[in-house]
Amino acid sequence: xxxxPRRHKKQFARRRRRTTTTTSVLDDDDDDDDAKKAEQxxxxxxxxxxxxxxxxxxxxxSLPDYKSDSTKKADDFVLWKDVWEHVGRRLRWSNARFxxxxxxxxxxxxxxxxxxxxACSKATCFIACDVGENADVATHMSRLTxxxxxxxxxxxxxxxxxxxxxxxxxxxxxxxxxxxxxxEMPFETRREKDxxxxxxxxxxxxxxxxxxxxxxxxxxxDACEVPGIxxxxxxxxxxxxxxxxxxxxYNCGSKLLDCYKNPRCRKxxxxxxxxxxxxxxxxxxCIRSYQNREFEYLAxxxxxxxxxxxxxxxxxxxxxxxxxxxFRGEKLTHDVAEQIMQGxxxxxxxxxxxxxxxxxxxxxxxxYDHFPAQYQIWYAGKARNSFWYNPVFKVNTLDGKSVWxxxxxxxxxxxxxxxxxxxxxDNGVTSKEYWRVVDAADDLSWALYYYAGAAKSAGQMYxxxxxxxxxxxxxxxxxxxxVERALWEGCGCKMWEMMxxxxxxxxxxxxxxxxxHDVVLKHSLCNYSC
Length: 530
Prior knowledge:
Structural class: alpha+beta
Strand content: 15-25%
Largest sheet: 10 strands, antiparallel
Number of strands: 24
Shape: globular
Helix content: 25-40%
Distance between the termini: 52 Å
């Protein structure tokens, strides 16, 4: 794995506590005292975008047209203004000291306003996002961004604006690199490492999903290296130094040798190394594509057993997502929450016995919720209070195959009904996730779950929401406004963040749905009106 350069600060293993406390998923700064807010700001990100133009993000393709004003049609694009305002909100959930200011580069009055000049004068970094090739706009933006130390240009832009890219006032334009790289070096220079960061940001943007836009912004903020500001989502320890080389060689040498003997394991290592461990979308695709025992044994030894990289990720604290309080007019209990999760398993639907609990319709996290045919199987075990989760899903691998994968989670009740801690080992990496039953229809026509997790020794933290139904199709149109409300007010998730799962009949056919443990079915809730 490649080393990750740091300067002016040490690697921190533990996540820093927030300076403010969030009390609601949708807790915005609109009503905050201006002086107090200014005192809290540690990083100011200015985003230039054609705010009223369509972004690269869309609503899910098969989303029902459930709004009378037709404001949320299937396959509609989302405006850049809405995208970046929501990214700014999620950045605050990452760290309350992150401020995002969105400027509409197509609005001459706004670009010439005192607000724009003040924003750029205090900005830590900027993103020029798909601003177009208008030379006059680019020239004006170049003047505005001159006092900003760090900035990246992504999407369509003019050559003038691309020349404005910089990292701590060091120009990043490839044409200018000879001014700084005078001599050939036998090792990777700092400038070459910085250029890789900019390449990573541009690659993240080209993936065209909300999580990678957020991660791109976090990579940029981390590159600014502001004293006292940590970005735990990015600052994963990937450095191979004498200490962790010794740890791997001494404790896991034989497993490393076995891995290099296996072509698929070598592909796994090379693929993850090219991604960088902090790129969850890329790394998880690698791991699931080339899944093999040798990689699993090596990762288990390096990360789980000996934590040779010294990471210590914790679950994201925000947004604060609470479980549903009542179901069918009565207070939610632990047993009822587990019955909701058990869902349709063992019941009859359309004259056939159902051998799974739910089928995911859409998910929020592009790293873990984008796979086709996501069957969810929840059930109680023989041991007292035991509860299991065995998701089964299909992976379109990087080498062009389509294969079924499955996982095995142990579920433990938390104090509040409808909340659970899930623990599992996935290809040698141990993860712990905090799940909530956010909402569910009385007739079990749909259910919404939210999770926040961390792979501690891999240094990764993540969140996601999953909408599920018995057939993998969107809930009935009459239910969609409630679903959207539960997503937004309950999870802080926009409908356009949800990625539709491929549940075509030919895709979901033939799934290996046998539970991995002995099943003890609870009383089914499907007798309500099913």
